[in-house]
């Protein structure tokens, strides 16, 4: 996978041999910096940051020094590809005394080289040092259209943050359900399901969907997205999945779990499950 990401993102460093002026040097540095994250080159990535660098992430609490950012990112780099941002539409402004600033748009690719997210913007400040240009600050933000602002404000107001204990409980319930379903354990199914729960499955895809969702909810392929609603007693879990049979892609898509917390307890039960298969999958293939 690391080799595939490196090959797919070579455009990030294509300008390196043509670099001539300060702006070209900065473009080469930033392109190589993003590429280093994609191929998990930890030394190159953090070497591009000045010792006093600050990284601002999208979460309100993500204002990190270089050391804090490095510590947080180590598990990401250990995966073989930390994150794959491809920059475009960059603007570089050169200031006095060896200082420059920039802004750029980003596409975020997932581990299967699909565009996972657009609408990202990065901006920052660089300083020329005896060793070359170094990043002093990077600010990663998400672009928000004005006509969707009220939707986002409403979402933030009505969806409380997911506590780690809730996330563990929700994922444990999903795992228990899928294990029971794969093993034909009716008692286990009843335990995971709310008494009024229902399951909606696409014809012919039920077994493949269950196996795939198990890996998505508990394995290394991806992390399920969890949203709490209302007062925090209702949750939705979205788990992307891909499943192969005899080495061939069988089905892919999303599993959508609706769960409710039993009043007065930390126990979650599934109220509904829907499988949403896709006709094209991560590698562009068709099941």
Summarize the structure.
The chain is an alpha+beta fold and 287 residues long. 32% of the residues lie in helices and 38% in strands.
Helix share, percent: 25-40%
Q: How many distinct helices? A: 8
Structural class: alpha+beta
Give the number of domains. Answer: 2
Give the low-pLDDT segments: 1-5, 10-19, 202-222, 283-287
Structure overview:
With 287 residues, the chain is α+β, with helices and mostly antiparallel strands. It folds into 2 domains: 2-143, Nuclear Transport Factor 2, Chain: A (Roll), CATH 3.10.450.50; 157-277, Nuclear Transport Factor 2, Chain: A (Roll), CATH 3.10.450.50. The protein is 32% helix and 38% strand. The protein is built from 8 helices and 11 strands. The strands form 2 sheets. A 6-stranded mixed beta sheet has the order 2-1-6-5-4-3. Strands 7-11-10-9-8 form a 5-stranded mixed beta sheet. Helix 6 (164-182) packs antiparallel against helix 8. The two termini are 21 Å apart. The model is unreliable at 1-5, 10-19, 202-222 and 283-287 (pLDDT under 50).
Helix-strand layout with pairing:
Layout: H1 2-8, H2 22-38, H3 42-47, E1 49-56, E2 63-65, H4 66-77, E3 84-94, E4 99-109, E5 115-129, E6 132-142, H5 149-158, H6 164-182, H7 186-192, E7 193-200, H8 206-218, E8 225-229, E9 234-245, E10 248-261, E11 268-277
Parallel strand pairs: 1-6, 7-11
Antiparallel strand pairs: 1-2, 3-4, 4-5, 5-6, 8-9, 9-10, 10-11
Helix pairs in contact: 6-7, 6-8
């Amino acid at each position: 996978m690391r080799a595939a990401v490196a090959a797919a993102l070579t455009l990030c460093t294509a300008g390196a041999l043509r670099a001539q002026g300060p702006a070209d040097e900065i473009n080469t540095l930033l392109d190589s910096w993003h590429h280093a994250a994609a191929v998990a080159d930890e030394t190159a990535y953090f070497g591009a940051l000045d010792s006093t660098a600050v990284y601002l992430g999208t979460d309100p609490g993500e204002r990190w020094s270089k050391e804090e950012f490095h510590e947080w990112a180590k598990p990401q780099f250990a995966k073989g590809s930390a994150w794959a941002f491809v920059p475009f539409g960059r603007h570089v402004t050169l200031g006095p005394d060896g200082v420059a600033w920039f802004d750029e748009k980003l596409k975020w690719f997932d581990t299967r080289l699909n565009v996972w997210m657009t609408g990202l913007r990065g901006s920052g400040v660089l300083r020329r040092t005896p060793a070359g240009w170094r990043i002093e600050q990077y600010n990663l933000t998400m672009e928000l259209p004005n006509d969707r602002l009220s939707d986002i404000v409403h979402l933030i107001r009505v969806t409380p943050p997911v506590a780690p204990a809730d996330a563990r409980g929700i994922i444990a319930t999903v795992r228990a359900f899928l294990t029971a379903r794969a093993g034909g354990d009716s008692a286990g199914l009843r335990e995971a399901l709310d008494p009024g729960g229902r399951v909606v499955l696409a014809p012919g895809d039920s077994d493949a969907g269950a196996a795939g969702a198990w890996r998505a909810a508990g394995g290394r392929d991806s992390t399920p997205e969890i949203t709490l609603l209302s007062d925090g007693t209702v949750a939705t879990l979205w788990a992307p999945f891909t499943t192969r049979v005899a080495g061939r892609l069988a089905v892919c898509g999303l599993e959508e779990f609706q769960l409710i917390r039993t009043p007065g307890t930390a126990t979650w039960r599934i109220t509904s499950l829907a499988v949403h298969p896709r006709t094209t999958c991560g590698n562009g293939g068709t099941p």
